[in-house]
Structure formats: C-alpha cells, structure tokens
Amino acid sequence: MRRRFMFGGKRALAGMLLGSLMLLLAACASDPAPSTESSGQPLPSSAEKKVEVIVSAAASLKTSLEESGRRFEAEFPNVTLRFNFGGSGSLGQQLEQGAPVDLFVSAATEPMDRVVEKGIVQSDAVQLMFRNALVLIEPAGEQNVKQLSDLLKPDVRVLAVGQPDTVPAGEYAKEALQHEGLWEEVESKAVYAKDVTQVLAYVESGNADAGFVYKTDLKNSAKAVLALEVDPDKHQPIEYPAAVPADAKHPQEAKALLEFMRKPEIRDIFTEAGFEVVEASP
C-alpha cells in the first residue's frame, strides 16, 4: 500500500507541473501585441508604465488640440498628454532654455526656424500642419471699424494686440498696419497681450474696443464680432509648423500624435474650427 501511495503521489505531482506549464504557455500565447503607430514603432502596452507627453502649442490651437488629444488618449490609454499653450515665440524661448517638450506646434515659421538654427529641432523633422487667417474683432454690439484706417477713430480708444516679439498674431497685425502706414499712429492705442486668448478676453470684456486675433479664435465667441478679415497680402503667411525636438523624452509617442492628427476624422476637428489643414508632404 505504501508503494502504491508513493507512486500515486509522483503521478499527481507530475500532473500538477504539466498543468502549470500548459497554463504558462497559454498565457504567453494570449498576451496582446504592443500597440504600434502607422510607422511601425511600438507605443506602450497595457503592461507598461503610463507615459506623459508634453505638447507646447500655440494658444490658437487650444480647443481643437484638446479635443484631438482626448481622442488620442482614448485610443492609446497608456499615453497622457500635457498641454502647454501660449504665444509661439514664448514657447520657442522656453524650448531654447531647456524646457522639456516632446512636441512643439508653432503659429508661425520664425519661432520654429529659430530652434532649428540652434539644433534643438532637426530641419527634416518639421511638418507644416495648418494655415489660418488674421481678423480684427470688436465687442458684440459695436460697429466702429470697417477698414483698418477706422482704428484711428476717436471711438477706438484701446486696441488689443499680441506682443509682436512673442505672439505671431501680434507680429502679423503690426505688419498689416505698417503696410497701410498706420502703425505709428495706432501704436499709442495698443495694449499688449501674452497670446491671442488674452486679446479675445480683452475684447469680449469690453476692456478693448478692437483687437487682432485669428479667424479660428472668433468661431465660438458670443461676446465678440468680426469687424473685418485682414487681407493676407498685407502680412506674411500664417502657417503652423510642428516638430518633435531632437532630445524629446518620448519621441515615438509624439510622432504617433502627429500622425494621429492626419487622420480624416481628426482633420475634421481642425477644419470645423476654421483652420486650413495642410496635406502631408509625400
């Protein structure tokens, strides 16, 4: 009886080991393959630590980019996007000073050109994403401006403008006014803002009688109205380049976000906001 008991115990032990091995093999076989972006580079799988991607972007992109970001995070739950919105010139300066950035989206080519010249961004990494238009706005109910020269009227006491040195919309506005020979006379009325969002707030609150923003900034405002759309020939083209910095901590995820923004349903978000979406270069 003792021998039969020992023999049965060995058979039970062998069966347990075999069962454990089969469970291990089955688990390995059922592990999902890591998510990949369209270029074939892997994104974090569900078993990996969550990644935070820092995106520095022009303030005019805030609403559209946040909506795109929510959809991106839903598709890639292991990636969290942290946005830093502001004037493109200021964002570029932060990048030059060593701020951690995984993706930079500017509302003008000059801030991007500057970081390319400094080697912070590789020239072949830059992609043109969007175009926009410059408009002059007034508080709702006001109709004092129909052309740029009307900014000289006494009724226009305060003109909100983005700081030309750091806010591309302010630079475009200054160029347009210089083109018409109005800048020197209008400058005394100017109150400078850190970005187009602040310009819009000045006008909406009535603290400014007029202001220069992008066409897309006005789209969802109920407290400001369009006075005129500035002739694009009076200023340099309003273009939005984007790039992943050379020392980005999470370049694969940042590149995946850029590619995600090219998807038709995501492009529609920007188109509906008033942006002109630029086709990807072949």
Automatic annotation (TrEMBL):
The UniProt record lists the keyword Cytoplasm: no
Keyword Metal-binding listed: yes
SUPFAM superfamilies, A to Z: Periplasmic binding protein-like II (SSF53850)
InterPro entries, A to Z: ModA, ModA/WtpA
Name of the protein described by the UniProt record: Molybdate ABC transporter substrate-binding protein
GO MF terms held by the record: metal ion binding; molybdate ion binding; tungstate binding
Signal peptide: 1-29
Residues binding molybdate: 60, 88, 169, 196, 214
GO biological process annotation, one example: molybdate ion transport
Entry keyword set: Metal-binding, Molybdenum, Signal
Family membership: Belongs to the bacterial solute-binding protein ModA family.
